[in-house]
Amino acid sequence: MSRMSLGQFYPGNSIIHKLDPRVKLMGLFLYLIPLFLISTAWWYLILTLILILAWMNSGVPGKMMFQAMKRVTVFLFITSVFCFFCTEGTEVLRFGFLHITVEGMRRGAMLFWRLMLAVVASSLLTFTTTPEKLADGLAKAMHSLTKIGVPVSDIAMIVTIALRFIPVLNEEAARIRKAQIARGANFSEGNLIQRAGKLAAIFVPLFVSSVKRAQDLAVAMDARCYGYAGERGSLHPLVYHRADYIGYAVMLLFFSISVFVRMIL
């Protein structure tokens, strides 16, 4: 479990684990809205403290979160660096036609902070909710859309399968990489273009394996008559408990405060 990747469920018996998936989905939604509407450092600090408190109550070890976020952090950092060169203001450094400004560095840091909070909050949802419960929660939360012909169950299943295959493909890529290294491949030699070309030895078998997994999944779903029957039921129907209502009340209070803060800024 120390190699846990993004999207993988971590079993536990914490307060966060016991919450109804609809409550956690609503909590994520109400957390992301003020995150992208309010852009001040002190507000991000408050959201960070809230996320840390939620993570501590989830029972998921912090080292697993850092392990899962390692590669995502590099991508988010590269995305944020573009703000250094695309924002006008007080110039700090210049590289030819590119220039870094104080305002760009500040904007890039805030963007990195914002994206990191969004990814960690989403990871907390997947770490504490099984794919089956997540699918049921999505289907129940969007059930009213079925009246206008939206295939809610299919959308929920697609999202769940996508989340479920993130750790599976990550582990498959790691196995393929180790197998290629055992055959003499060296992915650390050469320039950037040469090293990128060597990655074909990983991506081609990974693509073939992904297609095979998708075909096996399609056969399994077809054998279980998925899509042929009417509305599908659930072995364990979702039922609200007292803690869920308390969770809703706390989230609505937080969202009301965030709306008030947005109005006065």
Question: Would you mind describing this structure in some detail?
Answer:
This protein has 265 residues and is mainly α. The chain is globular and about 65 Å long. The protein has a two-stranded antiparallel sheet with strand order 1-2. Helix content is 70%, strand content 3%.
| Rg of Cα set | 22 Å
Q: Count the beta strands.
A: 2
- Judged by helices, strands and strand pairing, the structural class is mainly alpha
Strands ordered across the widest β-sheet: 1-2
Order of helix and strand elements from N to C terminus:
HHHHEEHHHHHH
The unreliable regions are: none
* Cα distance spanning the termini: 44 Å
Number of helices: 10
**Percent of sequence in beta strands:** under 5%
Largest sheet: 2 strands, antiparallel
State the share of residues found in helices, binned by percent.
Answer: 55-70%
Mean of pLDDT: 82
Which of globular, elongated, flat, extended, rod-shaped describes the shape?
A: globular
Summary keywords:
mainly alpha; two-stranded antiparallel sheet; 10 helices; 3% strand
